[in-house]
Automatic annotation (TrEMBL):
Classification of source organism: Eukaryota, Metazoa, Chordata, Craniata, Vertebrata
Pfam families per record: IBR_1
Organism expressing this protein natively: Aldrovandia affinis
Ranges annotated as spanning the membrane: none
Coiled-coil regions listed in the entry: none
Keyword Metal-binding: yes
This protein's name: RING-type domain-containing protein
Keyword Transferase: yes
InterPro entries assigned: TRIAD_supradom
Domain RING-type: 22-258
Keywords: Metal-binding, Repeat, Transferase, Ubl conjugation pathway, Zinc, Zinc-finger
GO molecular function, one term: transferase activity
Length: 271
């Protein structure tokens, strides 16, 4: 049986007293079939097992494991953004055993990628974690022990470190350039169809808080929630969402226009 067919088969147990059932439309898909049983999430919005599963799976596909409600608040164009626990999602999405395994394995991998940053040491090929996000000079303890001397390499070009340290831009090795910066400079331009008259912008942006490179899928509003630092910002003007919304809205052009291509990548201070 395919995943799609399994989702079609899902339904709530009308006798489940732990769920609050409602007759209004699905707040994710806006479906209002009167014969469909819907349940209310903790934030008050209505879902079906199918719509909730599809939405949360789409978040995982985008690298997000922080499940948030996409419904609009009553009478506004602002999203609810209430956080749902995985336990609540698992229950109200009626996840199958296969779906639970997929969700939990994906969530674990995303969490590891968020809180740890690893690269392969060019000397010993072992994985090394970078603790200081603002310093490109990284010490490999394995190579240091084997060589009995300090061995450092450049996080950016993956060559043995040359020049003074700490540094946040480059080491002194020939050809040490940031591939991420090159991508920001050379990526094609795009437009956001839902934001009329906004103009073109680079198709890839670095999160203004943590520097993670993100691409807009061109659907929905102009704002993105960064999957790493969980800060929402405007893809057009690069301001944090609360600041952008003071003079604009989710679907209107920014008051200061579209920000230029980024020439530096912010270093994330987890503290």
């Amino acid at each position: 049986m395919t995943t799609e067919h399994q989702e079609q088969e899902k339904s709530y147990d009308s006798g489940d007293s732990t769920l609050k059932f409602v007759t209004r439309q699905d707040d994710i898909t806006l479906d209002d079939d009167p014969d469909t049983l819907r349940a209310e999430m903790s934030c008050g919005h209505a879902v079906t097992p199918q719509s909730l599963t599809a939405w949360c799976r789409s978040l995982l596909d985008q690298g997000q494991y922080d499940f948030r409600c996409p419904a609009l608040k009553d009478g506004t164009v602002q999203k609810c953004e209430a956080r749902w626990s995985y336990q609540e999602v698992r229950k109200l999405a009626v996840l199958t055993a296969t779906e639970q395994q997929h969700f939990e394995e994906t969530m674990a991998a995303l969490a590891a990628a968020e809180y740890c940053e690893f690269k392969t040491c060019p000397g010993c090929q072992s994985y090394v974690e970078r603790e200081d996000m603002s310093n490109l000079c990284v010490l490999c303890t394995v190579c240091t022990a084997e060589k009995q001397r300090c061995f450092q390499f450049c996080w950016q070009c993956l060559q043995s470190w040359t020049g003074p340290a700490p540094r946040s831009d480059r080491c002194d090795s020939d050809g040490c350039t940031s591939r991420d910066l090159q991508l920001l400079q050379s990526c094609p331009s795009t437009t956001l169809p839902q934001v009329e008259n906004a103009g073109a912008c680079p198709s890839i942006r670095a999160c203004p808080t943590c520097g993670l490179l993100l691409e807009h899928d061109r659907s929905g509003c102009k704002n993105l929630l960064c999957q790493r630092c969980k800060v929402e910002f405007c893809f057009l003007c690069l301001k944090l969402t609360p600041i952008c919304l003071k003079s604009s809205s989710y679907y209107l052009p920014c008051s200061n226009g579209v920000a230029c291509r980024q020439t530096s990548i912010p270093a994330w201070n987890r503290n």
